Each structure stands twice: as structure tokens, then as C-alpha cells.
Amino acid sequence: MAETTKTPHPKNRDGGKPVKxxxxxxxxxxxxxxxxxxxxxxxxxxEDIECVxxxxxxxxxxxxxxxxxxxxxxxxxxxxxxxxxxxxxxxPDETGSFRYDPQDGDLKLMPDLATLSAVPWESxxxxxxxxxxxxxxxxxxxxxxxxVLKRVVxxxxxxxxxPAVAPEIEFYLIALNDDPDYPLQPPVGRSGRxxxxxxxxxxxxxxxxxxxxxxxxxxxxxQGLEIDTLIHEEGPAQLEINLRHGDPLELADQVFMFKRTLxxxxxxxxxxxxxxxxxxxxxxxxxxxxxxSVTDIKSGKNIFCNPDGxxxxxxxxxxGGMQHFVPKALVMMAPYVNSYRRLTPDMGCPVxxxxxxxxxxxxxxxxxxxxxxxxxENRLPSSDANPYLAIAATLACGWLGMMRETLPDGPTxxxxxxxxxxxxxRGLLDAVSLLESEPAFxxxxxxxxxxxxxxxxxxxxxxxxxxxxxxxxxxxxxxx
Length: 480
Known about the structure:
The protein has 13 helices and 15 strands. The protein has helices spanning 34-44, 67-70, 145-158, 203-207, 210-223, 248-268, 313-329, 339-342, 387-404, 428-437, 440-445, 447-465, 470-475, and strands at residues 17-18, 48-54, 60-66, 77-79, 106-111, 117-118, 126-134, 161-175, 227-232, 238-243, 271-274, 288-296, 355-357, 364-366, 376-378. By secondary structure, the protein is an alpha+beta fold. Helices cover 31% and strands 18% of the residues. The strands form 2 sheets. Strands 1, 8, 9, 10, 11, 12, 13, 14 and 15 form a 9-stranded mixed beta sheet that branches.
């Protein structure tokens, strides 16, 4: 039987609350065959399997089945229209051309057995597995988000390189609210009061929701989600969880499952967890910061460093690629109208494409570190992004920079996030146009993906334009 592993106790970084060890991780590592799966399921008495895959928005889609069906080589399919659907459920006419049947033909779910884990919040013994998507001919569906990321990682592997990422995910806890016209509020904590902002790194702020945090730790540990630290952020009941650095696909899987985990844990305590980029007016937005480094596969050395420890030419061209290409790929990191409400001056968010050493006001920060840990942090993505697409986009931009030996501007040592938005698209439609205008992206992401993604985003914008906002009622109703 495949052995389970224990989650190691993480470092207590930045004043965050350390992970608590409570039980063995209930997931499979390095599965080789279906025999191990049968033993794993049988030993735990698993009755049902959730076969899930991320859609373009990063929403889990899939099917549930008895475990006996899962292990009997049952064919699983989902309609291709899954990838033409907007976040609000519409199917825009403009979604590009599909390689497979445009009349909603079936695509096959292929379980990645290494992602099999328990579903700890279910009352009946249940497991989950992340699936890849393939067409009827067995070829990978290039517009499926997990396959988009695999495609980008393969570009690094062809050069003999191995990228690594470490995501930092910000989110808000929100009081229950069933009226979308009513502004959101932070929940009441154990003190009996609603939190206010200005609680960065506050341990007392984290402890306001101590029982919920315990459930997040336990649920995450049971699924093998390796949390590094948890801290309180600037906004009221705004938290951040940092994940350990590692393989981009594995970390995207972890962010994908963590979002679901957090929502379930919060609902168990009668509150919401939201990854909206800007859920509350006047408060800080929520980011998905992505730390990136690259090692040589043969030597295991960081390619961002010269032998003497100084930054290498590839480091500078990676940064140059980020500066040049990230604004054009921003819609993969800031995918909704609401995302651009976060990218607002004077709110602590970078509104530029500058870079600098340990400067949190720039888009691309190079943290102080030993040469072996030299990395670039992309601070532009918002937490509403599909993690597969956000990680694919940021790695692709760095790769293009290294391939083209793109030189960056000089590092910025002053405050860069004040005044007006610089060198970034200001809204969703501008961002979509920039994605489509860059010829290099067709080879990096796949032309089918770009066509479908752009069509869905334009469809979402048209849906947004059908809604009359409170601002319009406030200032236009009696004044125009």
C-alpha cells in the first residue's frame, strides 16, 4: 500500500502562525499504478470519488462516482462547452474555433493519480482527484488551463531548466450576505466585534478566527497542502497564506484545492471566504503574489546567479521579459472587471511595470536573499485569477525575456505605486486586446486558448455592462 507522509512543521515566517501538526497526510504520493489506488481507497473505506478539473475561471468542474466505478476503468467525459462558459454562466457566441466538435462534443477526463486525496469536510468517506482533459484522439486539449501551464513548463524543460514558484494568496473573510446590492462586511470575530483595517501582521487579528484557522490547517494537512505561514493582512479580516516553493503544476494544484478548502472551512463557521480582487470599497485588494526562480536541471544551480553569486544575464533578461510581456498577459492574472478596481493608485498595489530590490511598490520585486535563493516576485496577479493561468502567464513572460535577451529598465528604489497607473491596461477590454496583439503568445499559450479566452472575457464584460451600479443611481438619477 502507498504510504502516507507527514507534513513537516513549517518556518514561522513574517510573524505568521505556524501550521499545527495533527495527523498523517491522507493523500497518495508518487502513485505508480491502479493497484496502489485500490489499496489506498479500500484501506480508508472511501465510498465516493470527486473527479474535478479547473475551467477557465479556475472553478472546479467534474463528476462524482462510487469508488468501485472509478477503479473499473470507467470512461469519464465532460462537454467541450465547459470552456466556453463565462463566470456568470453564459455562452458567448465569440469563443474562437475549437479543434474538436464545436457542437459541444465530449472531452475525456484523465485522472492524475498523484493528486488523489481525501475530502476532509465530507461526512461520508470521500476522495478527490484532479483530472486533465484530452480529446477523442487522446491528445491534450490545449485550451484546458492545466494543459496551458504544462505547455509553458515544457518550454523551460526543452532548455534544460526547471522553474519553481511559491504563491502567496490573499483573501477576505466576509459576513454572510444574500443580497448582491448590499455592501460586504467583515464577520464578527470571537471578541464579538467586527474587525477594522490596519491589522497587518496582527496575531490578535488572526486569533479572532482561531477555530476557523484550526480547521483550515487540519483540512489542508489532510490533503497534503503544504502551508508555510498564515498572516493577517491590511484589510479587515483579510488573511494571507503562503505556500512552499516547488513545481509550478503542483503549486497550481495546491492553490486550486486550497481555494475550495478555505470556502468549505469558512462555511462550516457561518461565514464566507472570498478571493475577489476588490470585495470592499476603500479597502485593500487581494493579490496572488508569485515568487519565481529557475534552476539548471543537470547542475541544480540557480540560473539567475553567476558563479560568484552576482545576478546573471539570464536574471536580467527574465526581469526584462516580465516588464515587456506581463502588461500584455495581464488579463490572465487579472481576469475580471473587478480585478482592475484593485489595480488602483494609492491602495498599496503596484500600478506599474517597474522592478526593484526589496521594493514592495513595484510590480516585480527581487527580495533580499542568498544567491542560491535569488528569485523574482510578480506582485500584479490578483487572487481571483485561475492559478494555472496566472502561473503560466508569469513564467511565459520570463521565458520569452530570456529567449530574446530582453533588457530591463534600471531598478526602482523609490515609491512607484502612487499617482496614475503606468504601462498597464486600465480595464478588462484593453487587457484582452493586448493579449491578442502579442504574436509570441500564440506559440507560448496556443492560439486556440487565446481565441477562446478572449471571447469568454469579452462576453463577461458585456454581461457586466447590463448591470446598473449604485454609482449610476447615486450621481446620474437626478443630475443629468
